[in-house]
Inverse folding.
C-alpha cells in the first residue's frame, strides 16, 4: 500500500514538473501568435489608411488639373506615363512644363502645390490610354489589397482604367476609386516643336 502511494506521488510529481515545463512554451506560442495577429491587423489598417490618403490626393490633383485646363488648356502629355512633379513651379518658359503641354502657358497661375504629392515615396502620374488620360498612383505603390501598381496592376495604353476603378482587386478601396480621369482633356498626338523641359522651369517652390 505504501509503495503504491509513493508510486502515485512520484507520477504526480513528474506530471506537475512536465506541466511546469510546458506552460511557458504554451504561453510563448500564444504570445507570438497574438503578436503576429496584431501586427497583421496593424499593417492592414495602415494600408487602408494609405489608400484613403491616395484617394484624397488623387481627388486634389484632379481638381488642380481641371483648374489648369480651364485657364491654360492642356493639349496633351509627352509620354505614356507622366510623373506629376511640376505643380510647384511658379513660372516657366515655352509651352511645355515637365511632360505637360499647354496651349496658353502664359496664363499659368502656379504654384498649385508646395511640393509634389507622393505615396510610398512615389510621385503620382498621368497615364495616357486609348480611353483618355487618368491620374493614378506611381509605379511601385502597394495598395491595401496587396496589389502593386506597375507589377500586379498593369496600366498600359490599352488599359480600361475606368473598369479598374470599379474593381476592389484593382483600383477601388473601401468604395473609393484610387484613380481619376482628366475630364475634358482629350488625347492629342501633337509633335512638340517649342517644348521646355522641367529643368528649364524657373521659380520652383522648394520648402
Amino acid at each position: 500500500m505504501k509503495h503504491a502511494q509513493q508510486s502515485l506521488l512520484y507520477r504526480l510529481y513528474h506530471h506537475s514538473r512536465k506541466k511546469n515545463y510546458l506552460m511557458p512554451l504554451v504561453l510563448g506560442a500564444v504570445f507570438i501568435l497574438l503578436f503576429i495577429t496584431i501586427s497583421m491587423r496593424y499593417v492592414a489598417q495602415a494600408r487602408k489608411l494609405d489608400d484613403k490618403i491616395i484617394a484624397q490626393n488623387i481627388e486634389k490633383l484632379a481638381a488642380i488639373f481641371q483648374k489648369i485646363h480651364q485657364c491654360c488648356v492642356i493639349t496633351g502629355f509627352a509620354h505614356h506615363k507622366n510623373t506629376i512633379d511640376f505643380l510647384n513651379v511658379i513660372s516657366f518658359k515655352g509651352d511645355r512644363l515637365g511632360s505637360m503641354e499647354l496651349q496658353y502657358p502664359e496664363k499659368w497661375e502656379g504654384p498649385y502645390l508646395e511640393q509634389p504629392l507622393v505615396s510610398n515615396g512615389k510621385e503620382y502620374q498621368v497615364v495616357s490610354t486609348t480611353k483618355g488620360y487618368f491620374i493614378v498612383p506611381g509605379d511601385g505603390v502597394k495598395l491595401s489589397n496587396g496589389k502593386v501598381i506597375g507589377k500586379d496592376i498593369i496600366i498600359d495604353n490599352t488599359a480600361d482604367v475606368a473598369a479598374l476603378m470599379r474593381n476592389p482587386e484593382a483600383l477601388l478601396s473601401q468604395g473609393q476609386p484610387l484613380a481619376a480621369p482628366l475630364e475634358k482633356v482629350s488625347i492629342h498626338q501633337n509633335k512638340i516643336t517649342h517644348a521646355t523641359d522641367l529643368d528649364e522651369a524657373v521659380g520652383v517652390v522648394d520648402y
